Amino acid sequence: MSRSHNKKRNVGIIYEQIVIFICNRLLENKKSEASIATNIIEKHFRKGTQLHKEYKLFKALAETSQISDNLACSIILEAKKACNSMFDSSMLEKEKSELIKDLNYSFGKGRIFEEKVKNYRTFATIQTLLNEWRKKDASFDMTTEYEIKLHNKLTEVVVEQKHNIPNKIDPLVNKIMNNKFEEKYRHSLNESQKDLIKNFVDDKEDKITDYYSLVKKDCLTTLENYISSCQNKILIEKNNIIKENIQNLDEGNLSKENLKKFLIVAKLKEEILGE
């Protein structure tokens, strides 16, 4: 993206990749690896570290959106001031190197960095700015370019996507698909996931939306009960984000991409219950 950006030293990307890795390992019932990754976050992002300070500032910028132009300008100015006063740059780079070394040693070189991050471009923009703001000889042109990008991100209005309705499927093709599906996935999917896919393939729109609503409601209830007695600090911290993502799922969206999201939700409920 630029000479100042290295995704392996991007605090937001690294943190997000570790969290995604933890969630995937839990879904695969690899609790030992999930526990190791959780301990790494708690060790390297503990309060008082330079990584903790940078991540808090990064997170504040990444999670802010749909605000006014004036407020966006004020936030960028304050973030810039914070970068100039609150960081020990050499210590921050040392801590990032130690984190990368720990991740590579624990899971294999580069393994964590294979995890895909949804908002990569936004994260790259923010880290580039944090890097430039800390420099005494920062590039005026680069800083201006990325401040404009961040300003646009902070003020951007999110537009709701249109729904994609699947085409009708021939009954014979439907039967063959169901038989193949049952043969291939009967041991790897839980009952909720099988029902979701069956209703989707059968093109039963009312049943799909009703079942989406049921899966969504059940998972939120299960998650709430689990978090109330959970000791995992990372999951507790991400609880609101997970809940918000589930709540924002649209039961009326009958696209394949939305089906994949509800399949994950159905799997998440199963893992929480320890089934």
Q: How would you describe this structure to a colleague?
A:
The chain folds into 2 domains: 7-155, no CATH class; 171-273, no CATH class. Helix content is 71%, strand content 0%. The protein has helices spanning 11-27, 31-44, 50-62, 69-85, 89-107, 120-134, 140-155, 171-185, 191-202, 205-227, 233-247, 256-273. The chain is globular. Residues 162-169 have low confidence and may be disordered.
Question: TL;DR of this structure?
Answer:
By secondary structure, the chain is mainly α. It has helices at 11-27, 31-44, 50-62, 69-85, 89-107, 120-134, 140-155, 171-185, 191-202, 205-227, 233-247, 256-273. The protein contains twelve helices and no strands.
Rg: 22 Å
Return the domain count: 2
Multimeric status of the protein:
single chain
Describe the biggest sheet?
Answer: none
Termini separation: 43 Å
Beta-strand percent range: under 5%
Q: In terms of per-residue confidence, which ranges show pLDDT below 50 for 5 or more consecutive residues?
A: 162-169
Please report the number of helical segments: 12
Task: Output mean pLDDT.
Answer: 82
Helix content: over 70%
Outline, from the CA principal axes?
globular
| Order of helix and strand elements from N to C terminus | HHHHHHHHHHHH
In terms of structural class, how would the helical and strand content be classed?
mainly alpha
> Based on DSSP secondary structure assignment, what is the total number of beta strands?
0
